[in-house]
Amino acid sequence: MDIFRKIGAILIAILFVITAVFAIISFNFDRRGFTAETYQTAFAKEDFYNQLPTIMAETMVSSTSDQSGFPVVMQGMSAEAWDVFFRSVLPPEALKGMGDSALNSLFAYFDMQTDSAEFPLAPFKASLVSDTGVQAVFALLATQPDCTLAQMGQIALGLISEQEMLLCNPPAELKPLLTPVVRLQLQVTAAALPDQVTIATADQANDPRRNLRTARLIMRLSPLLPLGFLFLLTIFTVRSLKSWLQWWGIPFLSTGLIVTLMSLSGAPVIGLILKRLIISRAPVYLPAAFSNYASDVASAMVAAITRPIFWQGLILFFVGLGMVFILALIYMVRKMSQK
Question: Does 214 reside within a domain?
Fold first, then answer.
């Protein structure tokens, strides 16, 4: 009878270790993986906000981008010129604010607090109609070669006919004449842009967030399963202080060791998986710059998620190690007393 009880206790201890590892990982992923703060920290660490102008610039020159709403002096620009323009119009704090706002909106959508997620354009529109916008246009023109007489004629013709034209750096004496025209076109452009763009919306008939909600509920309740096995283990085996130290200490030690090792090795592995998922599910027009930084951002996000898992595993490891150490001391003292 004792043999069957011991075998059952060992099986329960193994089940405790397996479910405890799963519970620690899933519970922390629910707590950290679905909060905007985790991704904001990862984006800031990898300097991803600073890459947004490059991503926006490459999107503007993609085959699917429509630039007809922008001033004619800005149509047909290269990705490098768009990059300069976006960085001139949007300072780092504005880029971070737009990115953080989009993340907050996205996770409010995931939490089913709203039926859509929005990317704000209001800061961009405000900068566009200000003196910063006008200066940004002239700043990108200054990066071009000086205008020839033929190009000056083309500028005049382009402003009248609203057709695409080559970029060049106009003489300083002509800038006061061009300023009102550029300002007016920027105002028209800003008025035509929406205050925000929808980046995700719910399909009431088949909303995938319902499955996500169920998965998150399972993650939150996952610690109950190992606690149940620990309760059964206690009933089956604990008869004294020694048996308690043995049947709790070894499973705690094993669980803590496994979780700690998984948290240390998990970030680069899961980061690679996330990168592959991002690239495979991304739209075909997604700029290459986003894919280039996907691995770093994914690794940083996984590191932010696995950090608390590491500390919890380490604490559990040392608790188990302490219990096993005390158990070993008891055996040593007993052997010495028998001599």
Answer: no
